[in-house]
Amino acid sequence: MSVRTLPLLFLNLGGEMLYILDQRLRAQNIPGDKARKDEWTEVDRKRVLNDIIMTMFNRKFMEELFKPQELYSKKALRTIYDRLAHASIMRLNQASMDKLYDLMTMAFKYQVLLCPRPKDVLLVTFNHLDAIKGFIQDSPTILHQVDETFRQLTEVYGAISAGEFQLIRQTLLLFFQDLHIRVSIFLKDRVQNSNGRFVLPVSGPVPWGTEVPGLIRMFNSKGEEVKKIEFKHGGNYVTAHKEGSFELYGDRVLKLGTNMYSVSRPVETHMSGASKNLASRTQESIAPNPLAKEELNFLARLMGGMEIKKPSGPEPGFRLNLFTTDEEEEHAALSRPEELSYEVINIQATQDQQQNEELARIMGELQITEQPRQSTTKGDDLLAMMDEL
Amino acid sequence: MVAADSEGPKDPGIRMFRRERSIPLQGSAAALCNNLSVLQLPARNLTLFGVVHGPSAQVLSAAPDGVPLAQRQLHVKEGAGVSAPHITQVHWCVLPFRVLLVLTSHRGIQMYESDGSIMVYWHALDSGDAPSGTWSGRVLVFDIPAKGPNIVLSEELAGHQTPITDIATEPAQGQDGVADMVTADDSGSLCVWRSGPEFTLLTRIPGFGVPCSSVQLWQGIVAAGYGNGQVHLYEATTGTLNIQINAHARAICALNLAPEVGKLLSAAEDTFVHIWKLSRSPQNGCIEVEHCHSECVSDTQVCGAQFCDPSGSSFAVTGYDLTEILRFGSV
């Protein structure tokens, strides 16, 4: 499969994560002067987003990301987002982190599936980057980092053929295969059916470069058109009237990848009933050790490039709940179906001591210096999360 | 000159095909092109189906009414490597004296007896390529004995610069055991070959910047399906484009032929399967085509479709994330 898929996967999932966190932080937003010490303010929200974006677009990290490499498993990737989500004062319980990851993955799966052309996944990525730049308008340094990533994307993907984009799309779909978590915002908008599958419309504009189906043209041996016949193709398509822009600034035309959340549309997931394909799911989670070792190499490389800003002084870690109440969050943690557990990688289990130490050191930077105010259920400590299997 | 819709049945209430019993799959179908292979065994009252799930492929047999009988899972051969490799295609090769089941992946080519029970041959592909991971575009030709594992790589054909997407063959007119062949690649280029002691390149049909995902060959007609939803029909000997069909709104994932009647099936990611009738004009021998049937597989990104009998009276469909093979039969 394509070795150029990871940057697109990472940036788009990261973009969705920021949309969701932004929405949740706004929803829990209390005006600065009225806020108690343990409540989120506008300043806090901006700071969290800043810190995460700064970590995401760190130059060393991006360098590692853009190296040609195979995609790793969902659980390896989940580890990166765990770290990213904790790049600031914000803390998430396991249940909220699970829900966050569910939403991120289903959103990007939807976007990839509905992309008119395989190449349009680049426009989706640019939509995410445009929105990210909106979050950090006041920080020229980070803005520059994002523009730099933009330039890198254009350099790498600008030269790629339609065939390679098709392969990238197939690689992404392979990554998202068998995920059918129902997302309430998708159900309400009728883009997802109640069985968890996305609606594929048979109307609207055709992709740029495709003609509206329904015409048969016949040519003679000299290449001259001699006859045209129309046929009923069954859909209701129209011509695409404009191509989206691949420049640094421009009208992307495509809406996929723009922010669909707002304060009035809360984010919820329903866990689908027990998946019928338990066989295929369990096969992925019982990955043999050599595979896990490769993934740890990958994680060590990638996260070694992540610079986590350590909180200076005795700052509290604020907990963000992706559910409406603490009770709901606790219930979600207890009732999460077995086959949907992400089984975060156990770094203690590998034989390679040196590599293990390196990764443990990187992970150690995430240790919270002070306990958050709210009562916690399962450990906020990422290392503790890592040791659970 | 524009002619009006020339479909057969004028009454829209008359449907040509109806849904029949589906065959459940152990794993969902992967979003690959040509992701359904069918082996028709009318003498044994059986049909075999092959579908790629990802790291595994499933081969199963079913009775004529669709009742599943036996199934088997195949995997890529173990070896050193970074991550679990994925299967790219599972396909039955029907040869004059035997049928082989071929499994391809980035690691290599595995050949089995037709029921997938025994691997008879393994050909490793170079893994030492640059991490850009492009395939070389070589076409490998193997000599297959009537029995046993003495399979030998006899030729490597150079004709493509980008990865091969599909290969189609047809017994050449009036010659025993000799086939003509078409190969297609990621850039949309096609090569037409004549076989013999060695393969000779007859003609090359240039691409137009869009991958050709599937190709078929029938009575000197090359049918090619492209990433922009078009089906092109070319004269095989000259490479001339005779017909261009704006068939689908998304990339075509599979083409298949029912050779007895010249029916062509096209399936695409736009959820549609279309059936066409190919023929030659009695006056001047020019290629002609007629649209016969359109089937919408709701909310399904189709990834494979094949006729299940040589007269084209039934066909089967697979879709991304779908854990069953959908079957359609003539009304």
From TrEMBL, chain A:
Superkingdom of the organism of origin: Eukaryota
Pfam families the record matches: Oscp1
One Gene Ontology cellular component annotation held by this UniProt entry: cytoplasm
Protein name: Protein OSCP1 isoform X3
From TrEMBL, chain B:
Pfam family, one: WDR54
WD repeat residues: 245-279
Origin superkingdom: Eukaryota
Chain ranges of the WD repeat-containing protein 54 beta-propeller domain: 16-331
InterPro entries, sorted: WD40/YVTN_repeat-like_dom_sf, WD40_repeat_dom_sf, WD40_rpt, WDR54_beta_prop
Annotated keywords: WD repeat
Official protein name in the record: WD repeat-containing protein 54 isoform X4
Species this chain originates from: Heterocephalus glaber
Classification lineage: Eukaryota, Metazoa, Chordata, Craniata, Vertebrata
The gene coding this protein: Wdr54
